[in-house]
From TrEMBL:
GO terms (BP aspect): proteolysis
Keyword terms of this UniProt record: Signal
Pfam family, one: Peptidase_S9
Protein name: Prolyl oligopeptidase family serine peptidase
Ranges for region Disordered: 163-193, 952-975
Domain Peptidase S9 prolyl oligopeptidase catalytic: 746-923
Amino acid sequence: MKLPSLIIGLVLGAGAVSVQAQSVVKKPLTHDVYDSWKAIADDSLSADGKFLLYGINPQEGDGVLHLRDLTQASAAKQFARGYRSAFTTDSRFAIFQIKPAFATVRQAKLKKKKPEEMPKDSLAIHDLSKGSTQYVARVKTYKLPKQNGEWLAYHLEAPLATKASKDTTKGKAPAKPAAKPAPKPATGASKQDPTELVLRHLPTGQEFRFDRVTDYLFSSKGSTLFFVKAETDSLHKAGVHAFNTATRKAMPVDTGRVSYKNLATDATGQQLAFVASKDSAGKDLRYFHLMHWTQKDNRTKILADTAYKGMPAKWMVSEHAQLGFDDKGERLFFGTFPRPMQYEKDTTKLEEDKVSLDIWTYKDPLIQPMQLKNLEREQKRSFLAVYDLKAKKMIQLATLEIPEVALNPGRTSDYAVGISNVNYLLSVGYDSPSKQDAWLINLKDGSRRLVSKATRGNPRLSPAGKYLYWYEPADSSWKAMSVKANAPINLTRALKTPFYDVQHDMPTLPEEYGLAGWTKEDEHLLVYDQFDIWRLDPSGKDNAVNVTDGFGRKNNLQFRYLSLNPSQRTIPAEDKLLLRTFDWKTKGSGFYTDYVTKAGAPQKVLMEPYSFTGVQKAKNADRLIFRRGSYTMFPDVWVTTTSFATPQKVSDANPQQSQYAWGTVDLVNWRSNDNIPLEGLLFKPDNFDPNKKYPMLVYFYERNAETLHNYRTPAPSASTINIPLFVSQGYLVFVPDIVYKDGYPGESAYNSIIPGVQSLVAKGFVDEKNMALQGQSWGGYQIAYLVTRTNLFKAAMAGAPVSNMTSAYGGIRWESGMSRQFQYERTQSRIGGTLWEKPMQYIENSPLFFAPKVETPLMIMSNDNDGAVPWYQGIEFFMALRRLEKPVWMLVYNGEAHNLMQRKNRKDLSVRLSQFFDHYLKGAPEPAWMKKGVPTLVKGKEYGLELIEEPAITTPTPGQPPATTATAVPVNAGK
């Protein structure tokens, strides 16, 4: 296919700019460049492959939505602040929302405007053939039918109320009357403001408007628009309505109730389901009915409520469950739940008289913190039920004993799979992966059959519903069982190839490499080993076949199936398949092709020293888009064909990168102290000179070598160093891989990292007197451990470190409410036993007990809302080092989580990281926060970011006292 000259011109132009930039002296990255670095979002192709949409957005500020006509050289448009973009299915229109300007929103916040007065989104409707755009102000949301390009529905914001002004000037036009505010919903209506909904016929521009709407839904083919109206007064009742797009007529589906929720339609649009209640929102317990409407009868029926046959005693219809039809429209799935206990309000007690406490008991299935974390979810929990529309009966599928029930894709099977860990809840928190039981449930009569007891896998139903299948970690095998059989079949027992993660180095059972999917009619299951793809016969009759013929293992290539059709449920075995490919040796990637049923090695399409992401195909055309990037090249959008012939770059999101010193990255190798071969990444500054010595930062978190070709964006830090920033400023950055031995996590880190550092020092270009460590969480722990073992490093920063495994072991991960025990016994901390089974290993791996050995200046970050690592772990280490008069600082960002979430705090941390390392490794002046601290009296007024020069002593003139000078260097960041 001949690619458009527009794209070729863009690439040639970009090349010319790059050549010119090479002659310019490049500047180092600084903290003030973050906001200018952009990301690409919402890239998509029209179904005919002619048009491309993509957004280029700064980290903070106003983005731009780009629209390209890939068939014409000059057809390119830009829309300021465009986002949430989509093409209509007929490729005739592009629809997107437009954000209000960043500066306008900021000013409104400064003026403390009410939410309804804040600037709102607009909607853009762009005609691709005419090149014209229409805009609609104050739009909340829009929706398009999945299979119809003619219709668009958009929901407006409430109109702003304006005050009418007096007409005091004779001869001038009278002032416009005040806009009517949206009517307020009656008690019990949806919390969402009822506002106007507009349905637009895109080819003609004809519009239909409906007031008081709170929710809306298109049928897949766009034949009907369903919407909910709220009650605003006695004359304007709540109800569900349907608009037929063929007849252009609206009709009521159901009216007169207080609340309507959870609209769901079948594939044809001829059936609608929803739940409705006559109870007001003020009631403690509201009763909902499951409602069903058919276009054929134009009649609504109640299918289920508390009194209907099939509903368990004292159970009721859930208002929180999502409704759904099966593909044939013969079954309707909905949720139920046990009627909660009702308690009378005690009006004899004051609030101050009521006791508030949590009672922990050893018999609780889940510990109290987990119960509290799950409280809202449990209050909204629903249990799956089905209404058989042909047999006209309800069947309860999920129960208190089997709370989770899953269906096959399309919900076409007569069976469902029930999963329950109810019998194993007491072990949650220290047994991983946890156990669960599995049942097959018959959708026709609700009968159930136990098929797997205490499995550590996750049984699922195949697409056609013929088989139950799962990977069983207990024996490292894939299993399948016909829904008509009584026992599962081990599909991989006879194979010598491991299907578990061979790099797994935690004291727990390893997980599998995953699966590609199923072929049609459940004929075969395709699963992965470390390198290749295997075809398994779920019936067990045929032997397993290596689809990729062992080519991956022989050549150190990893093959993974890449679907180009997001809507397909099965893998087309007869078609040529595109395989995403990764080279374990070079870390390069690309694509091969292969067939499921044809013998022969995979065929190479493209392999390059880049990373490839975001592959999408036009639905009805031979055109692909993808992102291609590396450490030195931002992953812009590229366009090509399915053969990847002559790919061309389309976007240019960050041309400013050419102005900055960026650096390069190399893959390096060494052996651990245990003689294990290891890999790592070495980032080097531009114009690297092996005869010079450079300061070096060492950052790590388990394994990172496979990210060799990943782009790293200059951005403020959530917890770790920004590698491009430090490399640009003349640092080496070393990222070593680590392998672990059960029971010795700290020693394993030492045995992996230190030899790697020493191997680089031996090359002669590392300034061994100016090296530092930095890491977060698990990396932070390892740094805290390393500084008790070695004085190789001039400084270290540990983010959210565990310093005392003995106290951390009995703690809680507050973001989930889970006990921390599992982490030490079975997962990342890798001790492999309880505190009382292996007390010495808990102590030996705890930096706190060896604090007197620390000589390295240490900076800690432990935030007071950290839900992963308790911040008292940082406090314990800080207090120990402080008492020992070791140089130590601790940053506590108030209200912040494990990793910083607020951009202002990320910017602040980034500056402090630079100041800390620049001071120790480059001899830069010490900032005030390090030298003097920041007392709480001036908290929020002073930040201590100014640099303090040491007094310079000059030789005194005889007879005069010595003179000293001191210079304060201001720093603006963080203020």
